[in-house]
Amino acid sequence: MQDEDKITISPEDVDKFGRASFAGAELPPRIPFWWRIISLLLVFIPPVLYLFTILQLIYLRKRDTHTRYVYTRHCCLLLLASGIFWLFFFLVIAAWTPSPLKDFEDDTTALYLDSFPDVPSESALSGRDIAHQLLPLVAIVHRPGRSTSVLPGASQAFGAASLVISNPEECVFLTSKHVIDALTPKAQLGRRVGITLQDGQEVASFVVGLHEHLDLALLWAKRDPATESFFQPVRHFSTIGVGDMVFVIGHPEGFAFSMAGGLIAQTRGKDILQISVPISPGNSGGPVFDSHGNLLAIVKSAIDKTKSPQAEVLNFAVRADALFEIEDWRLSEKGQIALNSLHTFFDE
């Protein structure tokens, strides 16, 4: 090639050409900020986001390449963000949700119960008779595998529960909702806690019922198949009077399966019994029996002496006959079946 055939372009020519070219060129359109914010909300509503994406792609098919690119990229980012958000959300739910109630039968441990007390008795029982017959019905409620920490002076959270239903393949215990709150992140259906009986049997139990208004909860545990059933007789709140003798069984300050006696001091409103029985941490969720072996209430609380130093034996329990008001309970399928069986037994 001859020198005269060469084309020489100076930097000034490049600068001039570049500015002239870009001066008339159209930049890719930008998505308005307000539209970005509004469309971002669709990340939390996947069905609407999918429909929005499809309609927008149909609408843009005749637009220029730059416009289609910008808006298609925006839609892809929204879909990606939505997928990541919901994946993370369901992973968190899976990590925190209790095991499904249908898997209860897979638990390998089960309670073996072969005898039950003959209650209610026609004549009043002595304190010794109450202890002999009813102590086996009371359980320690604790974190799974932590019953060995329930010792005098133990700092671990624990409470008590009372057996109210024992069908051929299941046992149901009544306790306090605040006991479950202390052992799990929150009292919810399906939460898992451990229970230990006086004879040392320890099994996993699951929350199958929560009362909507009262401090009551139901725990379900597997039972070795048996033929004999037991339904704890429950005394109606309206028949309880001031001065009735009562017995409380629980684990005050870690002294497991302790029994104390006292009187009904007063009935408070429609749901609460005031009792003169000594109560300490560890009694919560424990049963209050009368002298005939009827279940009257579940221990709720005591007046805090650090705030009221002069308070003496001011203790309270929640009526147990709430078991017969199924409409006031939030129940799993097993809880519903258990309470229905209790009703059927006492209605016959």
Summarize the structure.
The chain is of the alpha+beta class and 348 residues long. It is 28% helix and 24% strand. The strands form 2 sheets. Strands 1-2-3-6-5-4 form a 6-stranded antiparallel β-barrel. Strands 8-9-10-13-12-11 form a 6-stranded antiparallel β-barrel.
Task: Tell me what you see in this structure.
This protein has two domains: 18-95; 105-347, Beta Barrel (Thrombin, subunit H), CATH 2.40.10.120. Helix 3 (46-60) packs antiparallel against helix 4. The strands form two sheets. A six-stranded antiparallel barrel has the order 1-2-3-6-5-4. A six-stranded antiparallel beta barrel has the order 8-9-10-13-12-11. It has seven helices and 14 strands. 28% of the residues lie in helices and 24% in strands. Strand 8 (245-250) and strand 9 form a beta hairpin. The chain is an alpha+beta fold and 348 residues long.
Q: Roughly what fraction of the amino acids lie in strands? A: 15-25%
Helix count equals 7
Query: Low-confidence parts lasting 5 or more residues at pLDDT below 50?
Result: 19-25, 99-106
Q: Taking all residues together, what is the mean pLDDT?
A: 84
Helix and strand element order: HHHHHEEEHEEEEEEEEEEEH
Please state the overall shape, judged from the principal axes of the Cα atoms: elongated
Total strand count, please?
14
Please write the CATH class name of the largest domain.
Mainly Beta
What is the domain total for the residues?
A: 2
CATH topology (level 3) name of the largest domain: Thrombin, subunit H
